[in-house]
Amino acid sequence: MVKCQVVMDALERIAPRHLAEDWDNPGLLVGSPAREVSRVLVALDVSDLVVRQAIREGAEMIVAHHPLLFKPIKKIRTDEPLGHRLQLLLQHDIAVAAAHTNLDIARGGVNDVLAEAIGLGKLSSFVITSQDDDGRVESLGRIGSLPQPMTIRDFAEQVKKALPTKYVRFVDAGDRPVRKVALCSGAGAEFIAKAAAMGADAYVTGDVRYHDAQHAAELGMHVIDAGHFGTEFPVVQVLAERLREELSTKGHVEVVTDHKSQDFFTIA
């Protein structure tokens, strides 16, 4: 066993908290740093399904990408979903931590995993979030290139096959071949204009709205909406592997993954 704080220290090395956006809420959200941990469950969300898996498999800690607690809460109603989830976590003494935008931004984090999955190379920064005195830049998203140009339809098919999603939506902006691609995992439609300004032929993200798609078409840039779940869930396995490496010399602790969660959206 190791202390919960040892897991938090490992998570800090993987996705330093200082990288997180100011509005975010990463870190230890439920439980005590002194909690003894022998099994850690890594997940995208702290859903009812994930909490039940943690209880069933004896995990004393959940490490998720999305924070369970994001906005201040004024009451804990155990007859409502969040309150009931918190009740179960406290009853079973399960700690919960999150690495959110810090894991999006971190090297080897969500966006790098997404870029590798869909076949991009020669990656560089996209939406710069910080720059230190040595000129090291951190950013949300990535911009990279495909080995060979593709049609938007072929690239959309490649993205669909690479990610845990049954479908993707895409904006076909014409005959423009796809070579340079920008991406931002999760919900990144706000950066469509930036992707176009940086010369991207296509932009991959999730949660794209109608008028976002219209704007992309007007800019002459293809957009692929592969879903919030589809663009982020691949990091779960990678984060678990990195935690195993970080914890391998710290004591006996098993790292397992959420293996049943699926996108809430499906198609008829």
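[next item in queue]
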Amino acid sequence: MRIALLGGTGDIGQGLALRWAYDTNHEVVIGSRDPEKAREKANEYETELSSLGVDRSINGFANEMAADRADVVVLAVPPYHARDTVETVADRLDDVDVLVTPAVGMDRDEDGFHYEPPSAGSVTELVAGAVPEDVPVVGAFHNLSADRLADLELELEQDTLLVADDGDAKETVRMLAEGIEGLRALDAGGLANAAEVESVTPLLINIALNNEGMHDVGVTFE
């Protein structure tokens, strides 16, 4: 399966790219608005994997080229770039693709981080409203520590919550998520539940900021 990480040069994109390249045989492609930056980062990821004894080829392209012919496209971009990025690659998507969004709208003040959803209700629903009608959207990976993902010597032992209205698309992302060692995917319902899932992220960041030794805090459900 070909996974395109648009904005794959950032924190969450890096973590997911490294984990999928390290733990699975899926083809990983890095996308960016700047194709040279995408290629540089792809080379960095290859070097890091090589240092751990894993020989993988990772390519970098402009976002449009990365999304082209991908089976799963991950919008690893900040929430304020989500709609623009979707519109940029919309003509490269069709009904056999799955679009995944891990973005969360947040604001910060002197007390910490706070959930700040867009008018659509959640970033996931915002993305769903921007894609071509036949392209399924799955919200996933919102609550994961990007730093923990990117450190391949650390065990994850965390859960990620999935929201989607398309059952087949959700199952595809569940399979991809659980291909990452130590990551469990749990069904949190349809897209209407995305706000509840996304709002956990600022809570986790506030816990990490206020408690020593919890920099990479995540969630598990029992």
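[queue empty]
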